[in-house]
Amino acid sequence: MSSKINLPKLNKGQFSLFLAEKSTGILLKLDDTRHLGEGDFYAVFNSIEEAEVFARNAMATKQGVECWIRDEEGEAVRTLRE
Predict the structure, then answer these.
(1) What is the four-CA torsion angle of 13, 3, 63, 78, rounded to 10 degrees?
(2) In this structure, are residues 66 and 79 in contact, taking their beta carbons and an 8 Å threshold?
(3) Interatomic CA distance for residues 1 and 62, integer angstroms
(4) What percent of the chain has pLDDT over 90?
(5) If pLDDT is split at 50, 70 and 90, which confidence band does 4 have?
(6) What are the angstrom distances between the C-alpha of 55 and each of 3, 18, 75, 78?
(7) What's CA 1's distance to the chain center, in Å?
(8) Residue 19: closest CA among 69, 72, 74
(9) Would you list the domain boundaries of the chain?
(10) pLDDT value at position 57?
(11) Is 82 in contact with 59 (CB distance < 8 Å)?
C-alpha cells in the first residue's frame, strides 16, 4: 500500500512544519493522532523562528516526536529531535 503525501503550497518566506513519531516515522496530525490519509498533518508559519518555537514546544509536551521544517520550495531546512 502506498499513499501520496501532498506538501502544502507556501508563499515566499513561509515554512511548513511536520511532526512524526520518532520510532516509526509515521506522520502525526496536529491533534496528536496518526495521519492515516485524512486531515492536516502540517502547520504553516511566516518565519522559521515561529516554526522552531512550535517544534520545541511540541517536543517538550509530546514524547517520542521529531519535527521537520521545510521552506517554500519543499526543501528540508531543519530537523529537530529530542
Answers:
(1) -30
(2) yes
(3) 28
(4) 63
(5) low
(6) 25, 9, 17, 10
(7) 22
(8) 69
(9) 15-80
(10) 92
(11) yes
Q: State in Å, rounded, how far the first CA of the chain is from the last one.
A: 30
Read off the C-alpha cell for 41. 498533518
The yes-or-no verdict on residue 44 having pLDDT over 80 is yes
Cell numbers standing for residue 48:
522559521
- Considering only residues 8 and 23, tell me which one the structure prediction assigns the higher pLDDT: 23
Long-range contacts of 76-81 (CB under 8 A, 24+ apart): 77/15, 77/48, 78/48, 78/51, 78/52, 80/52, 80/55, 80/56, 81/22
Report the helix count and the strand count for the chain, using DSSP H and E: 1, 5
